[in-house]
Amino acid sequence: MQPEPGPSSPCSRASLPNGVCHCLGQRLQGTMGCEPAEGDDTPVTELVDGEVGAPSQPDRPHIARKQDSLRKNRPAFPWFGLDIGGTLVKLAYFEPKDITAEEEEEEVESLRSIRHYLTSNVAYGSTGVRDVHLEMRDLCLSGRLGTLHCIRFPTADMPRFLAMGRDKRFSSLHTALCATGGGAYKFEQDFRQMADLKLRKLDELDCLIRGLLYIESVGFNGAAECYYFADASDPECCHKEPCNLSDPYPLLLVNIGSGVSILAVYSPDNYKRVTGTSLGGGTFLGLCCLLTGCDSFEEALRLAEHGDSTRVDKLVRDIYGGDYDRFGLPGSTVASSFGHMMCKERRSEIRPEDLARATLITITNNIGSIARMCALNERIERVVFVGNFLRINTLSMKLLAYAMDYWSKGQLKAPLIIPHPNPRSFLPPIIHPIPPPSNSLFSFLKVPVMSILYSPCSPPLLSPALLVVRCVLALIQASTMYTNK
Amino acid sequence: MKQTVRRSKMAAPGAQVSPDEPGDAENGRGGSGGYFDHSLRLPSGEIFRNLANAKRFAIDIGGSLTKLAYYATVQHKVARVHSSKHSKAECLYEISEQQEESTRLHFVRFENAFVEACLDFVKGHLGGPDAPTLIKATGGGAHKYKELIEKKLGLRVDKEDELECLIKGCNFLLRNIPHEAFSYCKRSTPRFRFQNTHPDIFPYLLVSVGSGVSVIKVESEESYERIGGSSIGGGTFWGLGALLTHTKNFDDLLALAAAGQHTPVDMLVRDIYGGNYGVGGLSGGIIASSFGKGATAQDGFEAEDMAKSLLHMISNNVGQLASLYAKLHSLHTVYFGGFFIREHPATMHSISFGINYWSKGEVQALFLRHEGYLGAIGAFLKGAKEDEPDQYSWGENYAGSSGLMSTSPELFPVARSRSGTFDMLEMDRLARLVPLPLLRDPQDYVPDSHDLAQDLPACHYWLSCFADSLPGVARRAVASQSQSPDAARRGELFRKKFGEKLQILRQQPCAFGSLTVRSLLDTREHCQNEFHFPDPYCKVKQQENEAALRCYQAVVRGLDSLSWRERQLGLVRGLLAGNVFDWGAKAVTDVLESDPEFGFEEAKQQLQERPWLVDDYDVWLKRLQGSPHHCALIFVDNSGADIVLGVLPFVRELLSHGTEVILAANSGPALNDVTSGELSILTARVAEMDPRICSALSNDQLVVVQSGSSSPCLDLSRLDEALVTEVENRKVDLLLIEGMGRAVHTNLRATFLCDILKVAVLKNAWLAQRLGGQLYSVVFKYEPS
């Protein structure tokens, strides 16, 4: 774990373990606004030093010299960031829009080919997808203006990606790629052998936190990034409200990928992995595929939208005929997920849609329950959900929002915060605040989940673009690296 | 229903399935071994015993298992001694066997498929004036089966809240059954580690994993609350499992899981990282995403593997939730119950792993040997308030209980194919038992010196030892009732029953909690009582007592003639020599049977010379030279020479110093140990010969109290309340524990707040060797407070 930086000089330390200052995004943004003010002492270059392990040189003349040198020696294009997860590979690509004619002339053929290939397509092969709605335009990065593209493909297609890198002679442009996620370790050797590329590995939890803060700081194409569902417990009134992450700490960060990691974040450099669960997005997709025969996340979600989980789950009223008054459980509470499926007759008449819906609710409820317990145990009032599981998954987002609201009933000063169901929203949900327990009737079992999930106020589905948080950070890293052709 | 019953594996233990012999069926009313169902035959006397005297009923019907509880009086024979009317007669006292009534709690667990058949059986055997009019019911099925129960039994069904029953049942078991709770560790030997019985059981967290999960915080008998839960529980395992594997039976799903591998189905950390995730501290084998490979599986998975993955997913999740709740409420004791666990090793392992992993070892998962009965016990207790069950202590009857995992096909393949899934628990009502206030560390007191399950050679030795001596023990039991026409038959039944128990313990040493010499001895006593051999040694004891009484005055005279210093050693040697007379020890039994004249003086010759194996005699002597003790508590051992020629002269010496003496003897018979009834007569007879004893008895300087135990061993955490009151009132400052069973097999390492003397002769060569000595080595252990 990284030590907390001193309060007086949050950015003055040079050798951060992964070379990324916690306020990297803001600083880059501010400094690289093409013309940094003279005498700006933002120690941007130290980050670079930090990355390459040079000793800290915080004195001003040195910095000025470094900045000058940065302009001349900025990393060569193309700038990529890779996040290789268990299920998906997320690729962030920065397309410079300010290329001069001179540069264009100098641009080698392979670079031009890559740029053209990536920006002129929205699909790559049968499985690669560019999420156009996620692209960040007019982004200033390391002094260059451009567009950030987000591309994803299944991790299973990694060999094809590597073959493409080899064919496009990527190694003639770069000797190293910035990568995070478990695959950065798993595929390191393949990158070297198949594509003649080294991987500069970044820790995924570091990237997650810093990427999140970066995106929050630069904004999303001029729009506010962070929203929450207000009145989440009332389907009629449920609506989105913007929220501000300027003072986010401490926060509980729940990253729902294939599995789930839960981090308590006290500052960008001071966080701990509190717990995790193996019941995550991979479980939802895996179980849906096995139960319904579907074969994609999108399809599984489409099924879930049209399902009825009460045909699958056993509710309290199925057992007690109504509410379980003795312990204050409403009859609509899910008592046993998939409980009806113990019965052969019910199994025989169940629809794939119902099964997908029940799976989604089961997994989401469980994550919410664990997140809530962690928030209470860690005494953190703000919970942020991120991760690919929530991509185009309004159902789960609302469910999480509702659950958090329900548990904290009567104890919340501020309402629940989760991401805006708007294509432009970039950031994950935030729950705020969850007070420490004062009575013990919290239970996910008590959430009458059905009412909210049938709510008619559900806006169009969208992607909160949560997927790119980590690869963006990797890309930023790439843009500040001195790499050679 | 018939179809279900016909499947061979559904048969009951001792019950036979006879699907093709419907003509065999007859009305089960009244007759022994009657048939009541065309396809299921329950020999009465093995399952649903004592129904004729059943007083109160309770039933807990879960998703797949039904638990029936009832309270019955049991007629059994006890040996009673009476002071002989003619004091000059040859007989010291008269022995008579009497019918006595005791109270027993019966619990029977069976599959729901048998509900109807079992209710018929119960109805057929009900009777007696105390027959109940009401049955307490709990569990999810109570609603569903209400009409059936009312119709079949003619009893009014009174429903009780499920969780309340669980908690009541849990409290009852934790308080009354030693070694009820255990932790499970797959990689240790034994896998089961039983917990000490703590006098204070609160607070704890009870995690009930039924169809869903309920987490209950229990702070006292009256104060508890449901602090949370989860919908991912046994129903999820069953439902999802059935969907994924097309296996509809819960036990079959568990069997599938036991045969599967989860790695083809789950995405592990190493599947993502290629190895460990070093920075995050996650090893490669950790599951990153349950069913995470489900989306990319080309040809699906093996059913076994999916079942295993599912089991892992659910148990881990339960463990995680439990550890989070435990942390939130600062609780360290977490008990798991509910049908999902059902003593299944993989489930217990997975939950234990989960809770240990997530709590970083701070919270330990504990399971209950009788978790399946919690609800039934609780419901029963709710209906039995006027019998005041809480005013008594209760003891597990090993003869009538099936033991842990009796229905596990893994552990008992033979038993399973032969029998099936009837499991039983019986508990006897005892006097109220409380811990000895002199224990230095009551929280950590473990009576037994040795957990045999942790020591395989010891385990083999003792199981063989008990098996080898069984024919002789059975013979002696039969001989003690030579006038009874069916003694031989009962003796054979006893031999068979205890033989089966030993067989079970060979396969599953932890079946009845920690396996100890004490538990083996107790099991044997219970089995003997079961077949109405309440006191096989009564006549032997009588003869030995008479013989010893005839020597008493000579022995006392001999001692009185010695100098003070010589007398002290003589008294101790007498104590030790008397202790050689022990029918419980095989080596001595052989000698006693072949040479009945083996006398007290000869016994002294057998003793090890000083220095003894454990020899604190000099310290003891020095203590005797100081101020006399105020009050001594002596737990006595054998009849005959031991008590009369060894202990009583020793007591006499203490009395002469002004020390008060409490003699604590067994409440009921065990081997040739003297019972409190016998001891009262013996002291009275000695008093006739010895004015010192006489005056001590009359002025209350010497009292005989029953210990509350009927075992050759001694559990100082469960003593008769009256004895403990005496101990407190008289301010005991010297404790003497005598004999191998009480001072070596148990209490050898126990520490006390007063002076303690542990005296025993090792009459077992194997044990003596274990302790570094040989046959007849002497343990004389004195520890000042």
Automatic annotation (TrEMBL), chain A:
Assigned EC number: 2.7.1.33
Catalytic activity: (R)-pantothenate + ATP = (R)-4'-phosphopantothenate + ADP + H(+)
GO biological process: coenzyme A biosynthetic process; nervous system development; vasculature development
UniProtKB keywords: ATP-binding, Coenzyme A biosynthesis, Cytoplasm, Kinase, Nucleotide-binding, Transferase
UniProt-listed InterPro entries: ATPase_NBD, Type_II_PanK
Name of the top EC class for this enzyme: transferase
This protein's record includes keyword Transferase: yes
Pfam families the UniProt entry points to: Fumble (PF03630)
Function in brief: Catalyzes the phosphorylation of pantothenate to generate 4'-phosphopantothenate in the first and rate-determining step of coenzyme A (CoA) synthesis.
Family in the record: Belongs to the type II pantothenate kinase family.
PANTHER family: FUMBLE, PANTOTHENATE KINASE
Record-given protein name: Pantothenate kinase 3
Species for this entry: Eptatretus burgeri
Taxonomic path: Eukaryota, Metazoa, Chordata, Craniata, Vertebrata
UniProtKB/TrEMBL annotation, chain B:
Disordered: annotated segments: 1-35
Catalytic function, reaction form: (R)-4'-phospho-S-sulfopantetheine + H2O = (R)-S-sulfopantetheine + phosphate
Domain Damage-control phosphatase ARMT1-like metal-binding: 467-776
Domain of life: Eukaryota
A molecular function (GO) term: ATP binding
Coiled coil: none
Keyword annotations from UniProtKB, A to Z: ATP-binding, Coenzyme A biosynthesis, Hydrolase, Manganese, Metal-binding, Nickel, Nitration, Nucleotide-binding
Function: Phosphatase which shows a preference for 4'-phosphopantetheine and its oxidatively damaged forms (sulfonate or S-sulfonate), providing strong indirect evidence that the phosphatase activity pre-empts damage in the coenzyme A (CoA) pathway. Hydrolyzing excess 4'-phosphopantetheine could constitute a directed overflow mechanism to prevent its oxidation to the S-sulfonate, sulfonate, or other forms. Hydrolyzing 4'-phosphopantetheine sulfonate or S-sulfonate would forestall their conversion to inactive forms of CoA and acyl carrier protein.
Pfam families named among the record's database cross-references: ARMT1-like_dom, Fumble
The protein, known as: 4'-phosphopantetheine phosphatase
Database matches in InterPro entries: ARMT-1-like_metal-bd_sf (IPR036075), ARMT1-like_metal-bd (IPR002791), At2g17340_3_helix_bundle (IPR035073), ATPase_NBD (IPR043129), Type_II_PanK (IPR004567)
Cofactor: Ni(2+); Mn(2+)
GO biological process: coenzyme A biosynthetic process
Subunit and partners: Homodimer. Interacts with PKM.
One Gene Ontology CC term in the entry: cytosol
